[in-house]
Amino acid sequence: MRGLAVSAALIAIAEIFLYVKRYELCIAFHGLNLLFSCIYVILRKDRDVIPLTLPSTFRLVNLAMPVFFTLRTYWLATVYLPMFPAIYYAAKALNMSGEDIGFTAKNIQYLALAVLGIPIGFAEFHLFKAHFSSPLIITALVMLVFVSLVEELVYRGVIQSYFESKYGVYGVGFAVAINAIMASPALKVFTVLPASILGIVYSKTKNIYVSTAIHWVACLTWVLLVYGVH
3 is in which domain, residue-wise? Predict the structure, then answer.
């Protein structure tokens, strides 16, 4: 538990530095979290810190990735793509199967809950503005395959699944808190609500497709509104 507390604190401190635009300190503290996690697992044989390597890995990729594309959509793809192997190896280190993460047909009927993403998308549009120059279909696909799926695998598939199995409802709350901390500076407080909805839905269905569908509809609603404005 101490290791988990230290790791979460390092992530929180790093994100505070991101909020005040001290990017070099944000990178330093996320890097410190990865270093601490490696040493902690080796010395203490405790795997609790492994799920929290994913948020730090994402932020480091997000800030340090060379800019290959000027278009926001393609940049998002290059930032999220490296997370797939990171998620795979974290899940493997935690002995989590595909079904443990939520790759299952069980409760697939709850895909209808994707409509919950519509009001979330409307709210996000009023809080966070962006501009996309790529074709709408490309942006929609990137939001599905990269943004929505990767974030759901990280926060629900690995982090929530692991901590909920150990700590029950407190594990769900912890995953929601990490998700909110890692959100864009303009959306950190707001993210508590959609992250809670996604966490509850995932907890009840244990289906990553359902939470990803809600997430994607929220992103798609936001994107459609952005394209409509521009």
Answer: 1-64
